[in-house]
Amino acid sequence: MHRNARQQKILEIIANKEIDTQEELCAELNKLNFNVTQATISRDIKELKLYKISGNTKKYKYACLESDDDSVRGKMKTLFRECVQAINYANNIIVIKTMRGNGSTAGIFVDSLQLKEIIGSVAGDDTLLIVVDSNDNAKLIAEKLKEFI
User: Fold this and answer.
1) pTM for the full model?
2) pLDDT number for residue 112
3) Per-residue b/e over 111-149, b at no fewer than 16 CB within 10 Å?
């Protein structure tokens, strides 16, 4: 089966089931006669820009933000609000603490804001580190980000 068909099936699976691990997604695809490995699933997750969010029956589940339209921006705000636990700053650095597995989710949202004061950011498992162009702007950006939570 081709990559597009497999990726379409991944989107279908995560829309209908709470899947929280790559191994679980791999098993679901294998049941549907897609012969895949965990490495393939990992690449697909990156290409599809899948993120983990809080699940209803499981702790986390994969979700997809596939376009830049307003409904996706709304979803991104909701994801940001749900995953952020704290926003602090020191000098020109902002540190956003998130639920485990959501540092990059917070980073995607912050990057989408395209704030000119932000020089760059680095996401870890449960932390987003943002470098701002000045100490004063770090305080302003931190306050602006707190408005989303």
Assistant:
1) 0.57
2) 80
3) beeebebbeebebeebbbebebeeeebbeebbeebeebe
